[in-house]
Write a structure and sequence with these properties.
The chain has twelve helices and eleven strands. α8 crosses α11 and α9 crosses α11. The radius of gyration is 19 Å and the shape is globular.
């Protein structure tokens, strides 16, 4: 098995995953060795004031410095660090990324929404799909929602919308974006009546809150959970479901986005494969490693 590391600098939290990859025939398996999540919520500042403050920059640097020490200990073959919506929207996003690299040695790539969606979708999810069926991949983040339509064994189309949980909490979600997403889903997705595939910590938590042991969540079950959690305040959600404070805040807007997309797209069921950007980055690095190794042997 080969060890790799992935860092996801998101709008709601920063994550580090260290994992080993095992390949048996055509099936790839990721075995997580360590996972760390730091709820810095870059999006709260960026979506409200347009940039990342010096104080928050320092917290990000300290987090990444800690991650660098962990990389030194675990010694992965390689690592990859992607920054998403908050960093790409920040007026000083490129400066902040360069500052992190200068002070910690970790190279940060700020990616667009479609790259984010395709990375999360990755071969890890794609290898589990029936090529004869149609799927809508839905990745709801703190700052953006990525949609990707998979039909006849390939990606047919994808789109990124500036709608996310932290934007909604800060009342920075643009009605125009809502209308554009609704129109896109109705035109591209609804006629196909696909199965949904949900990505991110929120949909995984919502699935558990619905008491579903399987990896499928129906629209009806999700709506019941949504109605219940909207009746509770943050403390009520924390006590009832054992949620951390930041998760108790973002879980409501996340459920709202998923339900809206499912309703517009005529989607009755959503699969929850427990895969996120870090998993996609691990797969990406493993594929490159295998390709390079095969080239070297030739």
């Amino acid at each position: 098995m080969s060890r790799f590391a992935a860092i996801d600098i998101g709008s709601n939290a920063i994550r580090l995953m260290i994992a080993k990859v095992e390949q048996q025939q055509k099936q790839m398996t990721i075995k997580k060795e360590a996972f760390f999540r730091v709820p810095l919520r870059l999006g709260s500042e960026v979506f409200s004031q347009g940039d990342i403050s010096t104080a928050l920059q320092q917290k990000v640097i300290e987090t990444m410095d800690a991650f660098q020490h962990l990389l030194t200990v675990f010694e992965p073959i390689s690592y990859r660090a992607y920054a998403t919506s908050a960093m790409r929207d920040a007026s000083n996003g490129n400066f902040t990324a360069a500052l992190i690299t200068k002070q910690t040695g970790i190279n940060i790539q700020i990616i667009d929404g479609q790259t984010e969606a395709q990375t999360v979708f990755s071969s890890l999810i794609q290898q589990q799909l029936d090529p004869h069926k149609t799927y809508l991949f839905i990745d709801v983040g703190g700052g953006s929602t990525e949609l990707l339509l998979f039909r006849n064994g390939e990606i047919e189309c994808s789109h990124s919308f500036n709608l996310g949980t932290v934007r909604m909490l800060n009342k920075k979600d643009d009605p125009t974006q809502w209308q554009q997403m609704k129109q896109w889903v109705k035109e591209k997705v609804s006629p196909a009546a696909p199965t949904g595939i949900g990505s991110g910590g929120n949909i995984n938590r919502l699935n558990r809150m619905a008491k579903k042991e399987e990896k499928n969540l129906t629209y009806k079950s999700l709506k019941q959970v949504y109605q219940h959690i909207t009746e509770l305040d943050i403390n009520g959600r924390m006590n009832r479901y054992g949620l951390k404070p930041d998760r108790a805040e973002v879980i409501v807007p996340a459920a709202h986005i998923f339900l809206s997309i499912m309703a517009w797209g005529n989607i009755s069921t959503i699969q929850v494969p427990k895969s996120g950007l870090c998993d996609g980055l691990i797969c990406q690095q493993y594929d490159e490693y295998i390709t390079a190794d095969a080239t070297a042997r030739d």
